[in-house]
Amino acid sequence: MNNELTGKAVVPAQHRGELPPGFHDMLDDLKPIVRGAHVRAQLKVNTEMLQMYWQIGRTILERQGGEKWGTKVVDRIATELRTEFPNQRGFSRSNLHYMQQMARTWPDPIVQQAVGQLPWGHITTLMDKCKTRFELDFYAQHAVHHGWSRDRLTAHIRSGLHLAQGAAANNFDVTIPEQSEAATQIFEDPYRLEFTQLSDTAAERELEDALTNRIIQFLTELGFGFAFVGRQYPLTVGDTEFRIDLLFYHFRLHRFVVVELKTTKAHPSHLGQLSFYVTAVDRLLRDPERDDRTLGILIAESQDATTVEFALQSQNQPLAVSTYAGLPPGVRELMPTTDDLCRLAHEVLHGGAGTG
């Protein structure tokens, strides 16, 4: 092709080594396609491996039941499989026992269940640490839903999340009966707040500071669906400004959630204050066409069940009461202070001078 003015040949941009318009936009479109294919391929490999493990475990169980095989036979199977497939990992003696345990625990095809979407390491953790089928299914479903790492899964099992979730005292069955079950499940009792490193004598502002300074950990403890809106969130009612300790929005339930913190025992007056804040959020922040009624939760140092029950029944706003577990008494005092750590760092940098 020639330039009409000069008569010289015009070389297309791509032939001159230049990139055509829209090239980088096209790359941006291609990259997610490749990443998505990689993820799907990894999931498919994991699914096929779990299906194979489950079938191996079931086959061994069936032969053991019919022919009374002992553990030495399983050891020999492990040896033979490793010899036949030297480049494939996973055929150790212990893994074969896990495969049998998996087939025994989940007799239906594994890939049709939530646990079938987890990595093998998560599944062995579940089988090692969970005592009942309810616990196995609870943690498998939550691990899939929340995308927990293996360490996070282990931490939740150790903390007894299946006992805490949905255990917070509340009045939802009366105030929001149609959504009572869903609302109940987003609150726990107790909340595990050891990461704050606070003692049992911490002030409320110290607890609030610790939670907001470690908001990602606190959101993880609260569970899936919570989005942080603000701390000491200001609301003007009449001619007075009030401040909410912590305000969240639950994007799955489409509700604001007011959190009030008390480092003392829960008291009926605390619920009166919380109810006022919930009403204010409903009137001033909630969009009636988009949001359901605001929920309030009081997280206190301790509670008396009967007092809390009576106090909840006297309120017409949907409220819950929970407690928190921090460091055991005396532990905070034994932890090194900032000065201790600075002094230790100085001694290390200077070759242990002054340590005697």
Automatic annotation (TrEMBL):
One of its GO terms (molecular function) is nucleic acid binding. Residues 30-162 form the YhcG N-terminal domain. Signal peptide: none annotated. It holds the Pfam family DUF1016_N. Residues 185-325 form the YhcG PDDEXK nuclease domain. This is DUF1016 domain-containing protein. It comes from Streptomyces pratensis (strain ATCC 33331 / IAF-45CD).
